[in-house]
Write a structure and sequence with these properties.
Two copies of one chain form a homodimer. By secondary structure, chain A is α+β, with helices and mostly antiparallel strands. Helices cover 42% and strands 18% of the residues of chain A.
C-alpha cells in the first residue's frame, strides 16, 4: 500500500507558516519532517530573517532533521509542507532520500500570492538555452579532473 | 553584450572540487560567487562532512556570499561551478537572483561519476504523478490561510 498522509501534520505546517507571517519572520511557508509518526524537525521560511535565499521551510526542515539524526540520508522520512515544494525544495527532498511529500497549497496558489514557484517549474521544462538565467559550459575537459579524482579516491563517502 | 565568463574563476572552482575529494571532505563539486570580478565567496560540497543533504557546493557558496554581503539577494553576482548545477542548485541560483551561471562538467558527466543530476532533470520534465517521489496535495483550502495572512501583513519583507 502506498504511504498515507496524516492531515494533522500538515495542519501543523500550515499553522507554523501563518505564524511565521504574523511574527514578521519570513515568507508564508513551513514544513515538518516525520518518521514513523514522530516529528523529527519542523521549520519555517527564514530567507529574509537569516539573509539566506535557500532558507525555504522545506530546506530548513531537511537540514534540521539531518542534524537531529546525525545523518545525510533521511530515507524513511516524509515531508509535510504548507505549500507544494519549489524545484529547489523538491530536488532537496530527492537528495535527502525522503519517501513521500504531502503539501497543502499549490504552486499556482503561491504564484497568486506573488511567489515564483510556477514560473520556476516552467523554466525547468525549457531547454537550457531558452531559460531566463543564462548558463553556459566551458572547460568541460578540465572539469572532468574532479570526477576522476572522485572515482579513484579511497576516502570517498557515497551519498 | 551578454555577460562573459572569466575561465580563471572556473579553474579555481575545479581545483577546489578536486581538493575536496583529496581531503576526503565531500563530493567532487565546488563553486564561487563573483561580483564585478571579485570573489565574494567560495565553497565545496560538504553533504557528508556536515550531515546536510542540501550542502552542495553551489548552495554553500550562495549561503556564504549572502552572509558575507548581509543580504538575501545576490543580484549582480555570478556563479562559477565545477559542474552543471543540479535542479536544487539551479533553483537556488534563481532565488538568489544571480545574473549568470558558468559551469565546467555537464550533468551527463556527473551521471557517469555516479550522481543523480541527469535523473533529476528528467524527473522535473515529468508530470508530478509520473515522478518517482510520491507527492500529493491535501487541505488545499486550509493552506491558503498562510498566503491570506501574507497578503494582509504590514510586516512582510518581499524577497
Amino acid at each position: 500500500m502506498p504511504p498515507q498522509p496524516n492531515p494533522d501534520f500538515l495542519r501543523r505546517a500550515i499553522a507554523l507558516a501563518t505564524q511565521n507571517v504574523i511574527d514578521g519572520l519570513g515568507g508564508p511557508f513551513a514544513a515538518l519532517i516525520v518518521r514513523d509518526g514522530q516529528v523529527i524537525a519542523e521549520a519555517a521560511n527564514s530567507v529574509t530573517a537569516t539573509c539566506d535565499p535557500t532558507a525555504h521551510g522545506e530546506v530548513n526542515a531537511i537540514r534540521a532533521a539531518a542534524r537531529a539524526l546525525g545523518t545525510f540520508s533521511l530515507a524513511g522520512c516524509e515531508l509535510y509542507t504548507s505549500c507544494e515544494p519549489c524545484p529547489m525544495c523538491l530536488a532537496a527532498a530527492h537528495w535527502a532520500r525522503l519517501s513521500a511529500v504531502w503539501y497543502g497549497a499549490s504552486a499556482a496558489d503561491a504564484a497568486r500570492a506573488g511567489f515564483d514557484d510556477a514560473f520556476l517549474y516552467e523554466e525547468f521544462r525549457r531547454e537550457p538555452a531558452a531559460r531566463s538565467l543564462p548558463a553556459r559550459q566551458l572547460l568541460g575537459d578540465e572539469a572532468w579532473e574532479s570526477f576522476a579524482a572522485w572515482l579513484a579516491s579511497p576516502l570517498k563517502v557515497d551519498y
